[in-house]
Amino acid sequence: MPKRIIVGNWKMHKTISQAEALIRQIIELYQPDPSVELAVAPPFVALESVNRLLTTTPIKLAAQNVCGKNEGAFTGEISPPMLQELGCHYVILGHSERRHLFGETDQAINEKVHAALQQGLQPILCIGERLEERESDQTHSVIQHQLQRGLAGLEAKDLENLTLAYEPVWAIGTGKAATVDQASEVHSAIRSSVATGWKLNPEHIRILYGGSVTADNAQTLFQSPQINGALVGKACLNSESFVKIAQLAALDS
Ligand code: 13P
Prior knowledge:
Elements: E1 4-9, H1 16-29, E2 36-41, H2 47-54, E3 60-63, H3 80-85, E4 90-93, H4 96-101, H5 106-118, E5 122-127, H6 131-135, H7 139-150, H8 156-159, E6 163-166, H9 180-198, E7 207-210, H10 218-222, E8 229-232, H11 239-249
Parallel strand pairs: 1-2, 1-8, 2-3, 3-4, 4-5, 5-6, 6-7, 7-8
């Protein structure tokens, strides 16, 4: 089984000084475990100061978005080389908030995936259906669509440097996480589709679950061998609950 990965998506929370305070608390509480990888995704402006505090720890740095172009007249955008120089290891792409609040298309997300990989940044590609899509039995077609478009043009070796995150939109920020059965069913479909499409060993495909993960429900979710970790929103803004989730992810916990 691959290492479990726990990623804290801080979204648009924490100023630079608040981010420093939070990461100091996380570092103080966190006891690294060889079966778990921990990563934090602070807002862009806090990446440098958080990274400075992470240098003596195994905690990895992630960004929440990136531009699909390396440089040019793209006001307000941040490029893959900028993130790479800042020390980012991962970049979250295709988050449902980017898709639905900021109109990101599968095509734009695919461009970002390619640009990130070219720069040595590992994409965490988010996919997930909306409530009305689940209720009208479209979950699998939506997931397949996002997957095929998001991963278009990638080679098998690229997939080794990419992590998928299943985040059902109805579970994000609602306190209503998917059940372990609901998540496992979709993870299993994602895994077999990617394994077949790119001729990969299904066990090497990393799929995180995201959507109202807490220190209370993480253990149940991690019972499923389909769930290789979590992308955590609200609960990662509290150092104790975030570190607890990481501890529960340890394979012998
Ligand atoms: P919540 O954990 O707050 O539901 O957010 C999940 C998420 O969007 C992580 O990317």
